[in-house]
Design a protein that fits this description.
TIM Barrel, twelve-stranded mixed sheet, 11 helices, globular, binds S-adenosylmethionine, binds iron/sulfur cluster
Length: 324
């Protein structure tokens, strides 16, 4: 459906849990957070029902995220349920990869279309420092499993955050050696993300050009997403940039987010939207739920205001509660 500014909302990001098996510095505090109780989380049946309503309004792409989505049991059941919703063309997963190798067969059988794997460094001790867990081998095992799965679209997501400056070139080299996209996601000043240094697209591109030569234009993804892609001589895959701060893309934003607790968020930076879980718990029928979704999307904010004065409606959640 179109929002008030004529943006076509086709992409729903669903967080299935706020829990995680890592503690990335820009996302979660070392001690973790008070987990949302199981009873306050949408059931898979509720998620599938809501996805059907979004699909009827024009959503055709779903991404499952978290927290770490694979820590929630039976995610393949949810993938299969969403794949069966009329109008949904693709179901994707964003994961840190630790549990991926074991769960991939079930996810593939359920029809998963692609995986974005978050990896900020290939250096084991730096990974342990950035994520506060010594789990790089398991993340790489997950990446290898994804790359070995026929037909699965695989992307690596890296957030440059200062500490990993010297790892950006080795990470980009994954796209030289393997047929995958490596994307650099600008650190957003949300929650703990405000505490680390941001590296802009231009800064990262300069580092990559020094290592690989001049960036070459290449085909863009064609999914209406905000990624801007280049490649380098001899590369099999692409390198992408998602630069919400330095290259704001709100004017073409096509997405909304559903938190694990059932709140429909219409903008990453603002605490605005509608509590669909409360409506479900109150017994709302599909007509009432659809009307609430329509109202919330119609009021989707024009854009974020990172770097400007805070407002009363700024997001107070950390990224593990939002889903990235
Ligand atoms: N646990 C999964 C993972 O890490 O892929 C899914 C959830 S995580 C919140 C989704 C994405 O958000 C990850 O790629 C993570 O690096 C990114 N992220 C978290 N905090 C961020 C921030 N402040 N700015 C930009 N990206 C952030
Ligand atoms: Fe967990 Fe993902 Fe946040 Fe890291 S970025 S703490 S893996 S939710």
């Amino acid at each position: 459906m179109l929002d008030a500014l004529g943006r076509n909302i086709r992409y729903l990001r669903i967080s299935v849990t706020d829990r995680c098996n890592l503690r990335c510095r820009y996302c979660m505090p070392a001690e973790g957070v008070a987990w949302v109780d199981h009873t306050a989380i949408l059931t898979y049946e509720q998620v599938v029902r809501l996805t059907g309503l979004f699909a009827a309004l024009g959503v055709d792409k779903v991404r499952l995220t978290g927290g770490e989505p694979l820590v929630r049991r039976g995610l393949d059941r949810l993938v299969a349920g969403i794949k069966a919703v009329a109008g949904i063309k693709g179901v994707y997963l964003t994961t840190n990869g630790l549990l991926l190798a074991g769960q991939l067969p079930g996810l593939l059988a359920a029809g998963l279309d692609g995986v974005n794997l978050s990896l900020d460094t290939l250096d084991r001790s730096q990974y342990a420092s950035l994520t506060r867990r010594d789990e790089l081998p398991r993340a790489l095992e997950g990446l290898e499993a994804a790359l070995a799965a026929p037909g699965l679209r695989v992307k690596v997501n890296c957030v440059p955050c200062g500490e990993n400056d010297r790892q950006l070139v080795p990470l980009a080299a994954l796209a030289r050696d393997r047929a995958l996209s490596v994307r650099f996601i600008e650190l957003m000043p949300i929650g703990l993300g405000s505490a680390l240094p941001r590296r802009t697209e231009e800064e990262v591109l300069t580092m990559l050009e020094q290592a690989f030569g001049p960036a070459l234009p290449c085909s863009q993804e064609g999914d209406g997403g905000p990624g801007r892609y280049v490649t380098f001589p001899g590369f099999q895959g692409k390198v992408g940039f998602i630069s919400a701060v330095s290259h704001q893309f709100c004017q073409s934003c096509n997405r909304v987010r559903l938190t694990a607790a059932g709140f429909l968020k219409t903008c990453l930076q603002y605490d605005c939207g509608v509590d669909l879980k409360a409506l479900l718990d109150a017994g709302a029928d599909n007509g009432a739920l659809t009307a609430a979704i329509r109202r919330a999307i119609a009021q989707k904010p024009e854009g974020h205001h990172f770097g400007q004065a805070p407002t009363r409606r700024d997001e107070g959640r950390n990224m593990n509660q939002i889903g990235g």
